[in-house]
Amino acid sequence: MKALIVNDDGIDSPGLALLARIAVDAGLDVQIAAPHMERSGASASLTALEEDGKLILTRRDMPDLPGVDALAVEASPALITFVASYGAFGRKPDIVLSGINLGPNTGHAILHSGTVGAALTAAAHGARGVALSLNGTAPSQWETAGPVAERAVRWAIDHGEPGKVLNVNIPDIPPGDLLGLRPAPLAEFGAVQAEIGEFEENGNESHSVAVTFRSVEIDDSYDSDAALLCRGWATATVLQMPFEVAHTDLSELEFSRSDRTRS
């Protein structure tokens, strides 16, 4: 089974190296292709730096992963996954492992996550996807993240389904403090919310709007992924592609050419 290892923190992230090592130890045929610099918040955008219509990429040496091909790609994580699905880096991946992200990807804010966006892009092309994140602005507890990530990857190999994504969030706490790993629904909000200031006229047709981000107070009244993560649980949620037809009455919107002729 071929695995693509990607992230949105860039190819030099410690979480990427750990995830690649886990994939190798699980017996997967590993290909690393990750952004050459941080691309957090890229969602599933298909953006890149190009030269004459060609993606720019550089082979990188990964000393702790001998024999593993590693590419630093000047593109968003979703675009990397997209082109990999069409054979840009050899045989298309059967599974895409995205992460381990520096910071959580919980709640409906996963819409904006480059980590989750890469995994969902894989799912859209018929592969299995796994997105993994370690909570905290400067996470350090890789001894906790490693075993949870290994369990998640092995579950995805044995039980994951093409077209679906396993989204796992891990608390940044010592291994002895981890309560375990359990399924959880998405929280209504993510880890942060935006506060929008006044629209300001700066002169010379220049305008500005102040945008600041603040941490959200977690709703602890039900066991969402965000709430459980704060209590010391690692959480797992299976995601499907969100582009399903909603059951909404559109009879007042539709028309045909004959309707316009009669009117």
Give a brief outline of the structure.
The protein is of the alpha/beta class and 263 residues long. It is 24% helix and 30% strand. The chain has one domain (2-191, 219-242): Stationary-phase Survival Protein Sure Homolog, Chain: A (3-Layer(aba) Sandwich).
Explain the overall architecture.
This is 5'-nucleotidase. Keywords: Hydrolase, Metal-binding. One of its GO terms (molecular function) is 5'-nucleotidase activity. InterPro entries: SurE, SurE-like_Pase/nucleotidase, SurE-like_sf. Its EC number is 3.1.3.5. The chain has a single domain (2-191, 219-242), classed as Stationary-phase Survival Protein Sure Homolog, Chain: A (3-Layer(aba) Sandwich), CATH 3.40.1210. The chain is of the alpha/beta class. The radius of gyration is 21 Å and the shape is globular. It has a nine-stranded mixed β-sheet, with helices on both faces. Strands 3-4 form a two-stranded antiparallel sheet. A two-stranded antiparallel sheet has the order 11-12. α1 crosses α4. The mean pLDDT is 85. The protein has helices spanning 14-25, 77-85, 114-124, 142-159, 225-231, 257-262; strands spanning 2-6, 29-35, 50-51, 54-55, 57-59, 69-73, 95-102, 128-134, 164-170, 180-183, 192-203, 206-215, 233-240. The longest helix has 18 residues, at 142-159.
